[in-house]
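Entry:
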Amino acid sequence: AWIICFCHGLSILVRFNEMKAIAWNAINLELPDEWELLQFSKSADNGKIAFADRYQFRLELDWSTVSAPPDLDRMASDYKSKLAEEGTKDAKIAVHLPWKGVSAQEEDNYISRYVNYFPSRSLMLELVFLWPDGEKVSPAFEGKILDSISVAPYQEDSQQHWKAFGLDFDVKDDHYLHELIAEPAKTQFMFRSTDRREIETIARRGMVPEWLDIPVDQWLAKQGPKEYEGTSQAARTENDHQNYLLVARREPTV
């Protein structure tokens, strides 16, 4: 996207990266479209996701569940002191309210590390920007990403939104991410209830002509566990897409 800015008769052409939305573990943010999700954690309480461009990692987002709001100023000051003790150059406090943090030169990367607390889910988020050697640091760009971050509160319908790896879907909020396959032609999320009685699986399959050699309804009928027997199937067209539904049951029912 291009934006033309006018100032005192001068026009300045500014290029902004195309952005994409990510929703993960109730955390929402927008990142450059060319940044890919390469590392992820399944835990809802403590974990991280990390993004990279074609050359190196550019962003790491860590989350942790805390029992009380943290002292963000103290955390930033302690981290600055730690960097100084380690001999890191030019460590200084970085602020983009309500985010607090530190920026510094670390070996081949200039880093900016920010922290913030979101009371809706008692989550503390830590965001680390990695700027490659030779690339100009842009606080405005960092601020744009920080401003895009939010944590979704618990919804009345008990659903949680996820958007990643080309999939956009809702699952039950109390289901945890049990398994994730992220391959070029196969992405599959599996969520389970804590009592293990419910499973939700959302998948995206690519390179369809290479492996799908039977009609979709027949393929769908083969996907259920062998102890289940199909009781009904239906098909409908929606937004020019052909959708198939299979209902299956087993004895004894569960």
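Helices lie at 72-85, 139-148, 208-211, 216-221.
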